[in-house]
Amino acid sequence: MTVIIDGKAEAANVIEAVKTATAQLKTTKGLMPGIAVVIVGEDPASQVYVASKGKKAQECGFHSVQHTLADTTSQEDLLSLVDTLNNDPSIHGILVQLPLPGHIEEGEVLQAIDPDKDVDGFHVINAGKLTTGIGTAFVPCTAAGSMLLIERIRGKDFSGLNAVVIGRSNIVGKPVASLLLAANATVTIAHSRTADLPALCRTADILVAAVGRPEMVKGDWVKPGATVIDVGINRIPAPERGEGKSRLVGDVAFAQCAEIAGAISPVPGGVGPMTIALLMANTLVSAYRSAGQVPPTF
Ligand code: NAD
Predict the structure, then answer these.
(1) Residues spanned by CATH 3.40.50.720 within the chain?
(2) Measured in angstroms, how far is the CA atom of residue 241 from the centroid of ligand 1?
(3) Which residues are the active-site residues?
(4) Closest among 99, 104, 5, 117 to 45, alpha carbons compared
(5) What are the DSSP calls for 190-225, one per residue?
(6) What is the DSSP-derived secondary structure letter of residue 251?
(7) pLDDT digits (tens, 9 = 90+) for 168-207
(8) Do residues 171 and 149 lie in contact, with contact meaning Cβ atoms separated by under 8 Å?
(9) Residues in contact with 51: Cβ distance below 8 Å, sequence separation at least 6, in sequence order
(10) Atom of ligand 1 nearest to the CA of 166
């Protein structure tokens, strides 16, 4: 029987652990984890993401602030806000919602965030810590969430297992590959220039799809018994639901692949809820570190 990985339930477990540890930090150190979310412009999808992050932070018992800036905000003003947040002791996690308007140099803004408050894990110091294994990195939340789901199925040591990650972004593909490698998997990163992707995927005991192409991974790409993690979020037309309606699908053709896989994460309800839960976990960890306390592990 194929296991359908319940990302909602796993995320709820992470959030419960965050709530408990937050209460402990308040009792023992009088410290409340603080998160600042910065959004520039009025992209509707970004507004929804930011609102749900703020809501989840409040649910966890965090101090949560949102800075909403006009899409005409200059790079200089945005950098100045990041600097203020870097120096604000009540803030332990800073998140600048992407994408930023075209006139802003995204890389420069992300690299201006204090690496100790970089709960998205996008700073080169955190990326470097993750790939080298030196120090403790903040791991990008979607990658960390995907890894937790894989661990629930496969344990923590992937010695002898082949892993294929489709997608080489800094946000998902590369950090997932680093985590799998650190857990002793033999890892291949595939991308848009990879030859014979279906044959490569058939070698994977662990297959992670982070592409952004609706239902690209077909049933005959999947090795029998494989663990399949679908990171993709794609909105496609759904005329069967009525005129102009749409629905979300992943990068994996779910029904076909579920027949072959040993375990598979659905979209929605798989990796998505884990991402926000791991953002809360990273912020909590940052607050613990700032208080000189050993943070919980997730
Ligand atoms: P990206 O566009 O930065 O990277 C996509 C990667 O896919 C690239 O490395 C590219 O080489 C590869 N690719 C493109 N076409 C390909 C093809 N035909 N064959 C093989 N590889 C191909 O995207 P991203 O930010 O890494 O996000 C990937 C997907 O994950 C998107 O659908 C995104 O919405 C989703 N996502 C979900 C979450 C979540 O919380 N669940 C978070 C981040 C991203």
Answers:
(1) 141-273
(2) 27
(3) 53, 97, 120
(4) 99
(5) E-TT-S-HHHHHTT-SEEEE-S--TT-B-GGGSPTT
(6) S
(7) 999 999 999 999 999 999 999 999 999 999 999 999 999 9
(8) no
(9) none
(10) 21
Residue with tokens 């201006």: 112
Cα(281) to ligand 1 centroid in Å equals 23
Fold of 141-273: Rossmann fold (3.40.50)
- Residue that has been written with the tokens 């800073």 in this structure: 94
User: Which residue's structure tokens are 């005959």?
Assistant: 220
Position of tokens 């419960």? 16
Question: Nearest Cα to 95, choosing from 69, 74, 118, 65?
Answer: 118
- Verify whether ligand 1 is closer than 6 Å to residue 170 (CB atom): no
Average pLDDT value for residue range 129-140: 97
Domain with CATH 3.40.50.10860 in the chain: 29-115
Is 29-115 a domain of CATH 3.40.50.10860? Answer: yes
- Dihedrals φ, ψ of 279, to 5°? -65, -40
Q: Is the CB of 145 under 6 A from ligand 1?
A: no
Tell which one of 14, 53, 139, 211 to mutate to probe ligand 1, the residue whose CB is within 8 A of the most ligand atoms: 211
CA of 96 to the centre of ligand 1 (A): 19
| Ligand 1: centre distance to CA 177 (Å) | 14
- Whether 267 lines ligand 1, by a CB cut-off of 6 Å, is no
pTM equals 0.97
Rounded to an integer, what distance in angstroms lies between the CA atom of residue 257 and that of residue 101?
37
Q: Is the CB of 212 under 6 A from ligand 1?
A: yes
